[in-house]
Amino acid sequence: MASSLRLGSSALRTSFISKPIVQSAAYNGLRCYSAKTKSLKETFADKLPAEIEKVKKLKKEHGSKVIGEVTLDQVYGGARGIKSLVWEGSVLDPMDGIRFRGKTIEECQELLPKAPGGEEPLPEGLFWLLLTGEVPSEAQVRGLSAEWAARSDVPKFVEELIDRCPSTLHPMAQFSLAVTALEHESAFAKAYAKGINKKEYWQYTFEDSMDLIAKLPTIAARIYRNVYKDGKVAPVQKDKDYGFNLANQLGFGENKDFVELMRLYLTIHSDHEGGNVSAHATHLVGSALSSPMLSLAAGLNGLAGPLHGLANQEVLNWLQEMKKVVGNDISDISIKDYLWSTLNAGRVVPGYGHAVLRKTDPRYVSQRQFALRHLPDDPMFKLVSQVFKIAPPVLIEHGKTKNPWPNVDAHSGVLLQYYGLTEANYYTVLFGVSRALGVLPQLIIDRALGMPIERPKSFSTEAYAKLVGAQL
């Protein structure tokens, strides 16, 4: 096996791995946080043989069983609801909302380790949970924080690439461009070109994913500081956690509440099943054995769309338009009138409704609770609260919305602008940093389980008509 591949601590050996893996210079000598603490890579490798056998047994004993049906409406409706993807990290229940490895957001807030004196879970802990299914110890999370900090240096040519981008190029386009350029550093791509055993794929995917995640805050911050500020980016503080470093590099490190918001934001925006565009695109491109860099870049390009990650920006713009019209009058009748004017103009109420959920998004609830603790008197938060009160009955009366309740996008922009991050065009980049924490664990799992290239069957409209016995 190539000696350039990196390992989170000591040389790894399992029943199906016979050679040690050597860490790179960037991580050389760091080992894990404690010699007695199992690293993330060791934890995943220990669990892997049992997981492989579980999948083999499931396929062997139940592979021929029918698990659903497909209607023509689903085919022409964007494959909505078709059961066809494997996604281990999270499952979205219409009533309970998202569960990360079976745990609700509220349970994650309670169980996952926090920074000393902090109130919100560290995203490092969620990444560990998504990859292994286990809640990590504080020592394991501290070790992961240290590992990401050690891997965080961005290649000079990538920095120069970002610096050469015109400020008019959308931040998400710059973000995708930089992530794509990191393909130059891909351990997976280099190893595959030399020839490696399929059982080794996941290890190189793991290393690339860890390197990629570690570099995202610096890349995201460089884009923000170039486009909106003075172009200066603070260095990563090696003894700090991921959320703090992102907040600090953006220029908000001195505000403890904003740091806590970043920890919460990164955690709750990370994963939302595998069928959403950014998750599915990452998985799909990865199934072709493209590197994590190219796979995540594909997911980011999907996230940039107004029907996906750009939605939180649209919500804030809509709220600001409303504020200009209603002013300080946020009475029930004033908000109701504005909502009806939006609907009667043929527009949707942004931030309300969801493809799967049929109740208030728990991610919205967690952000609302944060706001109630930290900014209860903010005028924009009060406006959001009034919309939360008035919009559902209006949408029910309107009758064209299956889910009249708010989703995560209905709240996040208001929190960011309160702390001074007012550049709504940039918000999706933060979403992208978070989404990497959810899609890359699944990419590692895909390669570990030997998942094949994704290749569904397509038909023409004429062929579908023939299948259902229709005359066109």
From TrEMBL:
* Pfam families reported for this sequence: Citrate_synt
Q: Which InterPro entries match?
A: Citrate_synth-like_lrg_a-sub (IPR016142), Citrate_synth-like_sm_a-sub (IPR016143), Citrate_synthase (IPR002020), Citrate_synthase_AS (IPR019810), Citrate_synthase_euk (IPR010109), Citrate_synthase_sf (IPR036969)
Q: Which GO terms describe its biological process?
A: carbohydrate metabolic process; citrate metabolic process; tricarboxylic acid cycle
Q: Which GO terms describe its cellular component?
A: mitochondrial matrix
Under the heading PROSITE patterns, the entry gives: CITRATE_SYNTHASE
The UniProt record lists the keyword Transferase: yes
Could you list this entry's UniProt keywords, alphabetically sorted.
Answer: Transferase, Transit peptide
Catalytic positions? Answer: H308, H354, D409
| GO MF annotation, one | citrate synthase activity
Catalytic activity as recorded in UniProt: propanoyl-CoA + oxaloacetate + H2O = (2S,3S)-2-methylcitrate + CoA + H(+); oxaloacetate + acetyl-CoA + H2O = citrate + CoA + H(+)
**Entry's family note:** Belongs to the citrate synthase family.
Q: What is this protein called?
A: Citrate synthase
The species this protein was found in: Polytolypa hystricis (strain UAMH7299)
